[in-house]
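agent> Task received from the user: take the single chain below, predict its 3D structure, and emit structure tokens. No templates, no multimer pairing.
agent> Plan: (1) validate residues, (2) run structure prediction, (3) serialize to tokens, (4) report one or two observations.
agent> Step 1 OK, no nonstandard residues flagged.
tool_call: predict_structure(input=
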Amino acid sequence: MGTFLYSLASGLILGFTGFILGYIGPLIATPNANQGPLLGIFITGPAGLIIGTILGFIVGGIKKRYASRETAPFLGLVPKIWKRVLWSCSILSFTIIVIGLICIPWHESKYSTIIESPSDLHKRYKTLTSLHARSLSDNEMSRLQAFTNLNYLDFDSGWGVEEAKLTDNGLKNISELNLPHLEWLMLGHCDKITDEGMKYIARIKTLKYLSLSACTHITDAGLDNLTSSNSIETVDLRGCSGISDKGLAYLKKMSKLMNEVKRISQNVGGSASISDNEYKIFQEIYEDGYPMKTVYHSPDGDKVFVEEIVTVKKQDIPPSEFQPPAGYEKITYQDILKQQ
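)
tool_result: status=success, residues=340
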């Protein structure tokens, strides 16, 4: 085998081994680390390819020059040793692949945050901090007690393919659980919960973020029931057609509410004109709500982005800074809301 082919073969073998170690290895060792496989794609795989190519070129040159020379017999051993190294790398790669085929599905059943049926609760590690549990019924909420590290509980994800089973009784069961780290409760598109259930939510002392998006049976009375909460900082009311100006006014009573109130539409994903009184309520919340926190969620709910304004300082800004560029029209924020 020529030096070039020897170098190429060595690079491919070490590169493949590095890729397998960096891609499958993290999936076995730390299956809940989403970025683990990137190690093999961008670091260990390319590094193995480069190192293997260089060493293969060197060993290939040694083999060509010194393998048959009696003056340097010890150099003739180098290609033999390198050949065993390459065989060992090949065996290691195969072994890791086999282990991965066995362990990854098993880990997936333990670490997955998606609960497709009540039986999945038995399979999951009880150290999980988030669960997507739209499939659970009211009577199954008590089984969540085993997940004492639970921080994020989602009944919204999957609303397009599965009807929510959660009712007010389920909210009552959740409020009776001892989940000291529960801060996020996503109830979007749960059309069986009503104003009565908001009383139970207000009892969850650790709750900070509550999503009621597209909960069509929540009315002003439900927001009034929430006002006894001393912990909730964020309420998502998008698509709650039963909420009026009166309900928004109730939010001002909540001592910890300190972020923007999201726009309320008369239909899910739609828009509606905003009344002058409703705009006034929004304006008062924005002016009095500092420090103000804005929370954004990715569509799957796994990623959360938080932006917080701690304070606002008054400054004099030259009027020229507010002049629109040529060809553009100046409108107010209130005009924008009315056009939606």
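agent> Step 4: summary for the user.
The first strand starts at residue 130 and ends at 132.
agent> Done.
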